[in-house]
């Protein structure tokens, strides 16, 4: 077997799975190995490659399933609405605010905010789900001076972007939202493993 055989298998499976509905069960590694006449290691590598490409998702104890790919475009002409993007793709979005607390601005973020370290900021931790699967989580820091009652506002409106736009009284939301979003640290994960 050539060193790239698993990539050839992954390419072929990827093309086939593109025609399948989201959530369709993918053949097991053993079935893939038999079908392509390769060892289990090559089949496993092909499935891992599909997982790296977000074509499939694995759920321990349940199997491997076709994943839905949704591209989130960020541009000056498209408002930054994660929920609208997910819904337009036919999926169900859900954002969950895990915590909002007021803390001193960490020193490593002070330059990004152009504020002194220790200035009060809201630290917001949120999780984002697509069809009830964890898609990403984010930590955001928003200056208290800009949105004094952020914790209360987020009880009324789930959208941090909407709260920032309302606080800025700027329909484009750029004066306040852009520096805040640039200062946010985000980590994306394909799925949280149990």
TrEMBL record:
Keywords: DNA-binding, Transcription, Transcription regulation
This protein's record includes keyword Transcription: yes
Entries under InterPro entries matching the protein: Bact_HTH_transcr_reg, Chorismate_lyase_/UTRA_dom_sf, Tscrpt_reg_HTH_GntR, UTRA, WH-like_DNA-bd_sf, WH_DNA-bd_sf
Domain of life from the UniProt record: Bacteria
HTH gntR-type domain sequence ranges: 3-69
Annotated protein name in UniProt: HTH gntR-type domain-containing protein
Organism (species): Streptomyces javensis
């Amino acid at each position: 077997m050539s060193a790239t055989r698993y990539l050839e298998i992954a390419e072929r499976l990827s093309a086939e799975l593109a025609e399948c509905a989201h959530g369709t069960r993918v053949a097991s590694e053993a079935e893939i190995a038999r079908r392509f006449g390769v060892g289990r290691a090559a089949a496993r590598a092909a499935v891992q490659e599909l997982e790296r490409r977000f074509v499939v998702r694995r759920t321990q104890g349940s199997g491997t399933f076709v994943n839905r790919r949704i591209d989130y475009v960020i541009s000056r002409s498209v408002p930054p609405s994660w929920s609208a993007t997910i819904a337009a793709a036919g999926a169900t979005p859900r954002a969950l605010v895990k915590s909002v607390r007021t803390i001193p601005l960490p020193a490593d973020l002070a330059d990004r905010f152009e504020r002194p370290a220790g200035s009060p900021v809201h630290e917001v931790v949120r999780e984002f789900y697509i069809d009830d699967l964890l898609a990403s989580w984010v930590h955001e820091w928003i200056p208290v001076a800009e949105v004094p009652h952020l914790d209360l506002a987020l009880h009324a409106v789930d959208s941090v972007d909407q709260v920032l736009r309302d606080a800025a009284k700027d329909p484009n939301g750029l004066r306040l939202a852009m520096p805040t979003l640039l200062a946010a640290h985000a980590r994306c994960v394909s799925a949280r493993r149990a």
